[in-house]
């Protein structure tokens, strides 16, 4: 584990795992698929892919991952969710299956299949705050949008045209990032680069933490100085 090549897991229960692995590797991460609780332990970051949020959450329950994932995410593991992954990072959802659970973490309400079933998929250029250069080509597939943003969350991207203009489709709250769209499908890894920078920042901060008194005395005990 080094800050230069952070170790980032892609939750590999269902969805477009391989595309995220490829995008993460292209921006300098050591990316691995994760399916077991033990594999969460030494991650520096996590990606929750697009797919079907109901299926991902059911499989997480089946593999006893739901609570461990909730804990790691709320304890500060940098996590990025795209599409179904955005739904899973929401504290509240509307249009979900009955009693649909999420991992939670971002203080927002997300509407599933928000663009309407008749609009299965579409793409449009979207400016993402913090991502330099031309707008990102945002691919939406049965996508959610953020209906309500809580106090701690920061809007990064909105739909720019059409009937959904102004809808929030990119958001960040501290160590958590979510997009309604799928940058992993475009070959443009700038959003993944933004996320890997978030992970590096967290790693940099923990490396800077001053040693505590007890660690100091443990060193003294070991070295005799
Ligand atoms: N509509 C899907 C869901 O509810 C998300 C679609 C996607 O990830 N492309 O989980």
General description of the model:
The chain is of the alpha/beta class and 225 residues long. The chain has one domain (7-223): Class I glutamine amidotransferase (GATase) domain (Rossmann fold), CATH 3.40.50. 29% of the residues lie in helices and 27% in strands. The protein contains six helices and twelve strands. The chain has helices at residues 17-26, 53-62, 66-74, 84-89, 190-208, 213-223, and strands spanning 7-11, 30-34, 45-48, 79-82, 90-94, 106-111, 121-126, 136-141, 145-149, 154-158, 168-173, 176-179. The radius of gyration is 18 Å and the shape is globular. The structure holds glutamine. Glutamine binds at residues 50-53, 83-84, 87, 112-113, 141-142.
**Radius of gyration over alpha carbons?**
18 Å
Percent in strands: 25-35%
Query: How many helices in DSSP terms?
Result: 6
Average residue pLDDT: 91
In the CATH hierarchy, what is the class?
A: Alpha Beta
Low-confidence stretches: 213-225
| CA-CA gap between termini | 29 Å
Shape: globular
Bound ligand species: glutamine
Assign the CATH architecture: 3-Layer(aba) Sandwich
Corresponding CATH superfamily: Class I glutamine amidotransferase (GATase) domain
Within the largest sheet, what's the order of strands? 2-1-3-4-12-11-10
């Amino acid at each position: 584990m080094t800050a230069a090549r952070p170790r980032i897991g892609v939750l590999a229960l269902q969805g477009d795992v391989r595309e995220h692995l490829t995008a993460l590797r292209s921006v300098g991460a050591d990316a691995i698929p994760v399916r077991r609780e033990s594999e969460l332990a030494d991650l520096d970051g996590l990606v929750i892919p697009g797919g079907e949020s109901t299926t991902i959450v059911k499989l997480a329950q089946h593999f006893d991952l739901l609570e461990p994932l909730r804990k790691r995410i709320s304890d500060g593991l940098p996590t990025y969710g795209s599409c179904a992954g955005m739904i899973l990072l929401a504290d509240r959802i509307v249009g979900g299956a009955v009693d649909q659970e999420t991992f939670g973490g971002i203080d927002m309400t997300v509407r599933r299949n928000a663009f309407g079933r008749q609009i299965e998929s579409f793409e449009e250029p979207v400016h993402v705050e913090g991502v330099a250069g031309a707008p990102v080509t945002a691919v939406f597939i049965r996508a959610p949008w953020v209906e309500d943003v809580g106090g701690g969350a920061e809007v990064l991207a909105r739909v720019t045209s059409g009937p959904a203009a102004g809808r929030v489709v990119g958001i960040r709250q501290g160590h958590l990032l979510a997009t309604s769209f799928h940058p992993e499908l475009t070959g443009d890894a700038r959003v993944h680069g933004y996320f890997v920078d978030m992970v590096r920042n967290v790693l940099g901060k923990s490396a800077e933490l001053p040693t505590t008194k007890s660690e100091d005395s443990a060193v003294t005990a070991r070295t005799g100085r």
